[in-house]
Amino acid sequence: MADTDGSELAEPDRGLVLVSNRGPVEHMLDSEGRRVTRRGAGGLVTALSDLAGLTDAVWVCNAITAEDRAIAREHEHGAVRIDDGERRYRVRLVDHDPAEYQRFYSIIANPMLWFVQHYLWDLSNVPDITANELEAFDKGYAPVNERLADAVAEEVARSGGAARVMLHDYHLYLVPALVRDRCPDAFLHHFIHIPWPQPDAWRVLPARLRDPMLRGLLANDVVAFHTERYARNFLLTCQELLDLPVSFRDLSVRVGSHTLAARWYPISIDAAALEAEAASEGVAEAHDRLLNMRREYLILRVDRTDLSKNILRGFKAFRQLLRHHPELTGRVTFLALLQPSRQDVDEYIEYLEKIRRLVADINLEHGNADWQPIDLRIEDSFPQTVAAYKLFDVLVVNPVFDGMNLVAKEGMLINEHDGVLVLSEHAGVHAELGAFSISVHPFDIEAQADALWQGLTMEADERRARREACVEVIRSNDIRRWLQEQLNDMAALEAEPDPTAAPTPDEGRDRVGT
Ligand code: G6P
Fold first, then answer.
1. Residue 43 beta carbon below 6 angstroms from any ligand 1 atom
2. What is the Å distance from ligand 1's center to 293 Cα?
């Protein structure tokens, strides 16, 4: 990866089209019927907002709310300028039949693909691939991808045909091949923000579903991930499931006469913007409220209520901690700030219910009239989250598997208590911060209980040294550098002639075994 100081983002010299399921803002009506905007959810949106706000990129995304769809129709499906209060964007909202969108989002993207890529299926029971799932692919995932591809192809043509297209995530696996057919000169770059699992995980899907998605992705010039491991897993998948020649030395795969590069760029946060937020009035008020409830020790977790986040085992570990250390009674609080997620998907509804039940059980077992050990808050308040980041002694980030996990980076940057990070070895961020955290295996509840105790009792000097090391990593690779390195590498790859000649020497060797 090219070296940049990450201080500013250079304007790309070709047309730029961003593509993702969620856009920078969602539109809705307030109680008086006025149209208002709300910033789109998730780390992906935050990351791309910078690029879209600083350049003349057009951002093609799905119309998600009824008001989004109304705007798409009012503007005859062309690009519209949107102001989110901080930045202006050019956004093209793509309108779908709500039933098609529901099949695309709530059956195929989630849970089907999300669970495959996070190894979440309980294979002796689920998934059942029935007519419902096949129809969701044919009459949901496919038409939504086709309509997005139509919009992208039009935007590429408008910018002269040789634009860069940056696609994002698992919602769009069919789009690259559809765009490539119509835009042979475009440069297609697809960033996958979730883990890429080992090839056998993909065998859960029949070839009828799997192959079009993998073949769709192969039309890209670059497929990018957060870690080297995911990039290598991707190449293994191409080798084992599609019998394609790959090079683990160059991180590339040959598809006919075309070479596709697999790359990895660990995403980060906008450190300056988060620090500005931390200094805001709203955070100060939330901080005072949390300070009032704070006991001697504060353990924190911040997550969407997603099954991959391993929220239940985190609470079970805390229960073990309380059982092993009754002297902590009344002295520690586990604050869980959970944002409801994907509540139109059955598995997510059940998961949230299990969380509530387990918290009630633990609070009943260990709490008393004056003290509840777990303070569960199911709401979405960013000022409260940032205030809690300042105050924790231990931050729990214990996902089953996670593409990156930006909570770890946000929390360690903002913390003012020399807090300790308890971090799953299966989170992408472990590659960067694992050395300075207490690493845990996400299924090992006893080890997580021990890690909580170790974090709460660690010497002050050691806590400080570990946190400062984390902060240095976070500052030196912030979001601008993440974007700039991708733009630099794209420019370098565009300048290379396509090596349609003989296979590189290590291809035969790599195909035999890695
Ligand atoms: C992850 C995915 C994003 C997604 C976000 C929130 O970070 O990589 O693509 O937007 O989760 O999930 P949601 O389903 O609410 O968009």
1. yes
2. 31
